[in-house]
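name: query_chain
kind: protein
chains: 1
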Amino acid sequence: MGVLLHFKVCKIRSIVVYDSFSGNTKKIAEAIASVYNCDIKKVDEAPLDLKNYDILILGTLNIRAHPSDKIINYINNLTVPKYFSLFVTFGMPIWGQISSIFCLRKMRKLFEAKGSKFIKSFICPGFHIKYKTYKGRPSCKDLEAAKRFATKIYLRSGKIL
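structure:
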C-alpha cells in the first residue's frame, strides 16, 4: 500500500536536511523528499539561511540520546524557517526508541528557542553496523511510514501556513 498523495507541485517551500553515518537516515530523508519533490541536502552541503523556506525537515542518527555534532552545529548556526519537523533513526533495541525521544526533544528546544514552530516528528529503526541489530531496516514498510509522515506534515502545514 503506497502513499496516496504525491506533491509534485507544492506551494509550500520545503527542504530536507539530514546527517547519516550508515545510510539509514539518508534512506528516510530520500523517502520524505520524494513526497514533496523538494530540495534534499546532506548537512555538510545544506544552506544556513532558510528564510526562503516554509518548512525544514531535519533528520539525524541517534547517538546516545543526542543528535550528531554536525546537526547540532547546523541548528546553532541556522537562520530558521517558520516551521520545522524532525526525524531520527536508531539502531539499538529498547534503549534506541527511548533515547530517540530525548534526541528529538533536544533538537526541538534548540529550534523553539530561535522562534521556529514544531509540526511533527518521526522515529525509525535502522541497521546498526557494529551490533548488527535491525537487519534489513529501514524496510519498505519503514520507507512507506516515512512517506506518510511527510504527507501528514504537508496536510498539517496547510492548516498553519
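note: The longest strand covers residues 117-125.
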